[in-house]
From TrEMBL:
Protein name as catalogued: [histone H3]-trimethyl-L-lysine(4) demethylase
Domain PHD-type, chain residue ranges per copy: 296-346
UniProt organism field: Xiphophorus couchianus (Monterrey platyfish)
Cofactor: Fe(2+)
Gene Ontology cellular-component annotations: chromatin; nucleus
The JmjC domain, residue ranges: 440-606
Cell location: Nucleus
Residues in JmjN domain copies: 11-52
Reaction catalysed by this enzyme: N(6),N(6),N(6)-trimethyl-L-lysyl(4)-[histone H3] + 3 2-oxoglutarate + 3 O2 = L-lysyl(4)-[histone H3] + 3 formaldehyde + 3 succinate + 3 CO2
InterPro entries given in the database record: ARID_dom, ARID_dom_sf, JmjC_dom, JmjN, KDM5_C-hel, Lys_sp_deMease-like_dom, Zinc_finger_PHD-type_CS, Znf_C5HC2
Length: 1320
């Protein structure tokens, strides 16, 4: 991998909508201002646009091109070309080139030569001893004497070549000059195969390293003697040797210095006779008297013929040179063929063959090429092809192209003609019947067969099919296959679509930086452009984007994936490579904005003498000849382009007139083949005019190169033209009319649409404007849309008028007055004169037909008179209708309160009934007006009812102010609305709720939790958004959280008591049972008969079974063994579940709950009860402390402490036997009076019961009474206090040991333990 490569920034990526995608060239024109700044862009079609792949796989076969990667990169190719030239130089003189290696890498001879020249030359560097600096600039590490190695290699290999290149060895030699076309294509300068002409190996075509770059093992002396090639590479002594590289002759042996003058006559004869070409010896001057030989044996450098022992004769031209006259001089004569500096110069000056790609020898199908490509990529990266990251391929590609050591070869199926093998897109060419889906894609503008010939594309005006421009080319790629830096022919647009396969990596440079890119490449690699000035047009050269970016050239990149388009803009340089096996298709297209770029391109081609693909002038004139077929944008662009062309043509023809060339003849250039109308000088395809000579009929030139045609007299020259200047001006005028026709039409449409009353035009005149837009194919625009809308309104209005005035007797659908009035107003706003408009205006403004109906009394009288007639009069029905109409109107007036009478209660049902009745009475203006008022009132009332309903549904609660505004505004409606009334009630309750909340919060004490919960419940039911409710909910939640915490602190699991019951004092006192009813008394929580073992509650004195309640553990786990004989410390106090109702937390835990309670702004009954409990506990604790501090009790506690210490000392004395030995007077039940107290179980206490001493301490009756009273009060408290245990301990020590109670507890514990063991 090459870590130095930094990917350029990404190019713009566009994703058109389906609507934008329908107009391809329109969308490209839309994105052009953004995309053109990058040179290239990527377009992702909508996801559903997936054209089927239509190539006929069985007939598709192609021969790819061969690409050797390191010969594509410009700087690398310069280095390789340099190696070719220096190898050629040495091989001409009989020596082959083997490039040395230093520090395990090949010596870059080209960079060495350039750096030495940059540092002042070989002599200066040697003089100043700066070879270490040369090594540093070449990137070698300091030390190791690398500078000396570089000097040695330079002196032996490069210095003779540089001397020759500088011309120092050709002081009197004038080598033959070769023109660019005189190239010795058969010449092979050295053993290195000609690059780009080597067919790939059938076994392994890729990964071939250049043979000359491989380091060889050091040869032994025996190898040198046996191998003439190694002998040839030996180095003998220091100093330059013209043969190069140690440079020994091809003959065996090397003659001593004095031996080369002793030449046998046979040798001389052989030299002047037949030469087998295998030997070269010193030619001496013999037979001086022969006049033909005297001039031949003269040194061409010094002009003297003396010292003939040192005279050498060239094996090619027979010229003679002294060995010491050569530069550099030869110390020893060559032993093989030798050529003089002039012949070497002539041979080396022959230009090398122009670089290009060759075709492979194998023909592929898509399947065989894909198998080869995938196999190569998988083998190269040693992983499956789909797992190779694109970044890795990109870095490896740029590493390979810059390496002169690694010669990786790939193949690229490029520029495959789609006409011959079929396009990847469906085509309507009659060769294949298409499905409906394929027909849609075949007509799509994004089909690359369709895009170049779209109406907006200029290429549709070119008759012939231009392969690659109008007809797509196909590209089948493999990994590393490359398309080099180039711009499209005629600087046109290009579009590339990747049908399938792995991505294609692109690099692009915008057109504004095109010349900058060319300058950078010419500056960095001038040698390549010396023989190929149009090198960048040959698509054979790339350069690392990082190098271009370092020189200020803006470069972008992108990865084109399958199904994506890449667009390149005019004169945007682009290049790239393929990430793997893929199939792409590309074509060119030109839009109106391309015309100036196309003209500049022709000027550029003219300077480079490059052939054109088509004539730009011919294309422009062909469009100008039929301006009516062009859309407006294209016509305007063509007019601007044609104006410049005509002005230039007029100037050029004027120059001919000034030279005296007056003869002219018309020529239909478009009928001539391109090669018969190309300028002989610049190769431009002529169309408008050309200069020809009657004496030289086979030649012609464009008017820019009239001096380069021939040397014939002026009268022999004549102008061949396509159009006269008058014809060109006429074409220009028609273009102008076409391009400006839209402006004229637009002004007339604006004027017509803005006419005021009295100046309006007829409908026929508007119709003419619409027809003109259609005939001249004006683009869709706002004015045209307005005009079409006007015609749509005219058609509708005319139909309604005709229906009203002409078809009235035959139509049941009559227009209302409001509708007629609205229609008249709209017709008055139309920009043209409308028939029947005046009749409609008279009808609207007539007041007679809107008179009020007769009074009811008159109608009743007429009806009575009509009823007396003996016949049915038709008018009676009309009068009856008028009567019903009057009654209905009166009811409406009473309902709406406009009649002055008693106003009825108006509901929605009343309004709907009136509306329904109004539809059945005779219609009149009054009825229509009343109906309109009723409908308006009903609509408003229903709207407010709907608003209220929304507020009541509580989907989204509204603030109080909003509801007040709704209710207040609804009061203005004279209709009773149920939802509004309900909303008013909710509003009243909400206001009362707020008032109650304020009263509670403004009170002297915190509100009770029950009150707040009630307010929260009421507030949640109201459809009103109240901020106070949220605060109340938080307070209630906090109170419940505190209550839950207190419950967990006090209540046992599955407790039957509430927290409040536990916290409040227990005032219930059980009555003592009478002695005569004791036997029948029920005991325990189970209400069963008495049975052993049972225990009595210390507080309530009730009896309980041992298996029904939890008894004391007697010996707590934390109690030490030394205190087991201290029976007063045993836990014998039993409280039943009714007396010990809670967990009895410690006082510190309760105080923490009180602190949390103080933070709540809510009063809880449990909180108050807890405060009372805490106060009682603290009071009792104070009294208990005071009592325990009395001297009598202090002495008792001290005695207990001393007894405990004494027992502890006894344990220490008996520590060895782990037993306690009682005194003889105490006796014992164990063997030898020994009792084992080491067991942990409660059963171990059973033998101690007879030994327990009674009344350890003595209390006065007063002290005992006080402690018993305190103990009773303490047991009633649901709090754990240390003083309770202390009092119980003192009272127990002052009493006899409760042996029965202890025995009962031990039995209960034993049963519990045994039962537990059985369960396990």
């Amino acid at each position: 991998m090459h870590p130095g490569f930094i990917p350029p920034p990404e190019c713009p990526v566009f994703e058109p909508s389906w609507e934008e995608f329908q107009d391809p060239l329109g969308y490209i024109a839309k994105i052009r201002p953004i995309a053109e700044k990058s040179g290239i862009c990527k377009i992702r079609p909508p996801p559903d646009w997936q054209p089927p792949f239509s190539v006929e796989l069985e007939n598709f076969h192609f021969t790819p091109r061969i690409q050797r990667l390191n010969e594509l990169e410009a700087e690398t190719r310069v280095k390789l070309n340099y190696l070719d030239r220096i190898a050629r130089f040495w091989e001409i003189q009989g020596s082959s080139l083997k490039i040395p290696h230093i520090e395990r890498r090949i010596l870059d001879l080209y960079s060495l030569s350039k750096i030495v020249a940059d540092e002042g030359g070989f002599e200066l560097i040697c003089k100043e001893r700066r070879w270490a600096r040369i090594a540093q600039r070449l990137g070698y590490p300091p030390g190791k004497n690398i500078g000396s190695l570089l000097r040695s290699h330079y002196e032996r290999i490069v210095y003779p070549f540089e001397m020759f290149q500088s011309g120092a060895s050709l002081t009197h030699c004038k080598p033959k000059h070769y023109d660019g076309e005189d190239v010795d294509k058969e010449y092979k300068p050295h053993s290195i195969p000609l690059r780009q002409s080597v067919p790939p190996s059938k076994m392994n075509s890729y990964g071939r390293r250049a043979n000359r770059c491989q380091p060889d093992p050091e040869p032994t002396e025996e190898d040198i003697e046996k191998n003439p090639e190694l002998k040839k590479l030996q180095i003998y002594g220091a100093g330059p040797k013209m043969m190069g590289l140690g440079l020994v002759a091809r003959d065996k042996g090397f003659k001593k210095k004095g031996e080369f003058t002793e030449v046998k006559k046979e040798e001389v004869k052989a030299e002047y006779g037949e030469d087998d070409g295998s030997k070269m010896t010193m030619r001496l001057r013999r037979n001086i008297t022969n006049p033909q030989c005297v001039d031949s044996f003269i040194c061409r450098m010094c002009g003297r013929g003396d010292d003939d022992e040192k005279l050498l004769q060239c094996d090619s031209c027979d010229e003679n040179y002294h060995t010491y006259c050569l530069l550099p001089p030869l110390t020893d004569p060559p032993k093989s063929k030798w050529r003089c500096p002039k012949c070497v110069a002539e041979e080396c000056k022959k230009p090398s063959e122009a670089f290009g790609f060759e075709q492979a020898t194998r023909e592929y199908t898509l399947q065989s090429f894909g198998e080869m490509a995938d196999s190569f990529k998988a083998d190269y990266f040693n992983m499956p092809v789909h797992m190779v990251p694109t970044e890795l391929v990109e870095r490896e590609f740029w590493r390979l192209v810059s390496s002169i050591e690694e010669d990786v070869t790939v193949e690229y199926g490029a520029d495959i003609h789609s006409k011959e093998f079929g396009s990847g897109f469906p085509m309507n060419n009659g060769k294949k019947e298409l499905t409906k889906e394929e027909e849609e894609y075949a007509r799509s503008g994004w089909n690359l067969n369709v895009m170049p010939v779209l109406e907006q594309s200029l290429l549709c005006h070119i008759n012939g099919d231009i392969s690659g421009m109008k007809v797509p080319w196909l590209y089948v790629g493999m990994v590393f296959s490359t398309f080099c830096w180039h711009i499209e022919d005629h600087w046109s647009y290009s579009i590339n679509y990747l049908h399938w396969g792995e991505p294609k990596t692109w690099y692009g440079v915008p057109s504004a930086a095109a010349e900058q890119l060319e300058d950078v490449m010419k500056k960095l690699t001038p040698e390549l452009f010396e023989y190929q000035p149009d090198l960048l047009h040959q698509l054979v050269t790339i350069m690392n984007p990082n190098i271009l970016m370092a020189h200020g050239v803006p470069v972008v990149r992108t990865n084109q994936c399958a199904g994506e388009f890449v667009i390149t803009f005019p004169r945007a340089y682009h290049s790239g490579f393929n990430q793997g096996y893929n199939f792409a298709e590309a074509v060119n297209f030109c839009t109106a904005d391309w015309l100036p770029a196309g003209r500049h391109c022709i000027e550029h081609y003219r300077r480079l003498r490059r052939y054109c693909v088509f004539s730009h002038e011919e294309l422009t004139c062909k469009m100008a000849a039929c301006p009516e077929k062009l859309d407006l944008n294209l016509a305007a662009a063509t007019h601007r382009e044609m104006f410049i062309i005509v002005q230039e043509e007029r100037k050029l023809r004027k120059n001919l007139m000034e030279r005296g060339i007056t003869e002219a003849e018309r020529e239909a250039f478009e009928l001539l083949p391109d090669d018969e109308r190309q300028c002989d000088k610049c190769k431009t395809t002529c169309f408008l005019s050309a200069l020809a000579c009657s004496n030289c009929p086979e030649r012609l030139v464009c008017l820019y190169h009239t001096q380069d045609l021939c040397n014939c007299p002026t009268e022999k020259l004549y102008l061949r033209y396509r159009y006269t200047l008058d014809e060109l001006l006429a074409m220009l005028h028609r273009l102008k009319v076409r391009s400006e026709s839209f402006d004229s039409w637009a002004n007339r449409v604006k004027e017509a649409l803005e006419q005021e009353e009295g100046h309006k035009i007829e409908i026929l005149d508007l119709e003419k404007l619409k027809t003109e837009a259609a005939e001249k194919r004006f683009p869709d625009n706002e004015l045209l849309r307005k005009l079409n809308a006007v015609f749509k309104d005219i058609a509708l209005f005319l139909f309604r008028l005709i229906e009203t005035f002409m078809l009235f007797p035959f139509s049941d659908d009559r227009m209302t007055l409001a509708e007629l009035k609205s229609l008249v107003e709209k017709m008055q706003n139309l920009p043209c004169v409308i028939k029947h408009l005046k009749e409609a205006q008279v009808l609207v403004n007539n007041k007679d037909w809107r008179k009020e109906s007769p009074p009811p009394e008159q109608l009743q009288s007429l009806l009575e008179d009509g009823g007396k007639l003996p016949v049915v009069v038709p008018e009676c029905n009309l009068l009856q209708g008028l009567k019903a109409q009057g009654h209905w109107l009166e009811e409406v007036r009473r309902t709406l309160g406009t009649g002055g009478g008693e106003k009825h209660e108006v509901t929605l049902e009343v309004l709907r009934n009136l509306m329904e009745a109004g539809c059945n009475v005779a219609q009149s203006v009054s009825v229509e007006t009343a109906m309109a008022e009723l409908q308006e009132l009903l609509t408003i009332a229903e709207r407010w009812e709907e608003k209220a309903q929304i507020c009541l549904e509580q989907r989204q609660k509204h603030p109080l102010s909003t509801l007040e505004a709704i209710v207040n505004e609804a009061q203005l409606i004279p209709v009773k609305l149920p939802n509004i009334e309900a909303l008013r009630g909710c509003l009243t309750r909400a206001q009362a709720w707020v008032t109650d909340l304020e009263e509670i919060q403004n009170g002297e004490h915190y509100p009770c939790l029950d009150d707040l919960e009630g307010l929260v419940a009421i507030g949640r039911d109201l459809p009103v958004l109240m901020e106070e409710l949220r605060q109340l909910e938080l307070q209630v939640t906090s109170a419940h959280s505190w209550r839950d915490k207190a419950t967990k602190t006090f209540l046992k699991k599955s407790s039957q008591h509430s927290l409040l019951e536990v916290l409040c004092p227990c005032v219930k006192r059980r009555e003592r049972c009478k002695e005569n009813g004791a036997t029948a008394q029920s005991v325990c929580v189970c209400a069963g008969p008495p049975r052993a073992p049972q225990l009595r509650c210390h507080l309530c004195k009730d009896w309980f079974h041992g298996g029904c309640v939890s008894f004391p553990s007697l010996l707590p786990p934390s109690s030490p063994q030394s205190n087991r004989l201290c029976w007063w410390d045993w836990d014998t106090r039993f409280l039943c579940p009714q007396c010990q109702r809670s967990r009895r937390p410690r006082l510190a835990t309760i105080l923490a709950l009180l602190v949390a309670l103080q933070r709540l702004p809510v009063r809880l009954p449990e909180g108050e009860a807890l405060q009372c409990l805490t106060e009682r506990a603290i009071t009792w604790q104070g009294r208990a402390k005071e009592a325990l501090e009395m001297p009598e009790l202090q002495r008792a506690l001290q005695e207990l402490q001393e007894l405990a210490e004494k027992e502890e000392q006894k344990e220490k004395d008996a520590e060895e036997n782990s037993v306690i030995v009682l005194s003889d007077s105490e006796g014992g039940e164990g063997e030898d009076g020994v009792i084992d107290l080491t067991e942990d179980s409660v059963e171990s206490l059973l033998p101690l019961l007879p030994l327990l001493k009674g009344r350890v301490v003595t209390l006065s009756p007063g002290a005992r009474e006080q402690l018993e009273k305190l103990q009773l009060e303490g047991d009633l408290l649901e709090v754990t206090l240390d003083q309770t245990y202390t009092i119980h301990r003192v009272l127990q020590a002052a009493s006899d040991p409760p042996r029965e109670t202890l025995q009962t507890l031990i039995q209960v514990r034993h049963r519990h333990t045994a039962k537990h063991s059985i369960e396990i």
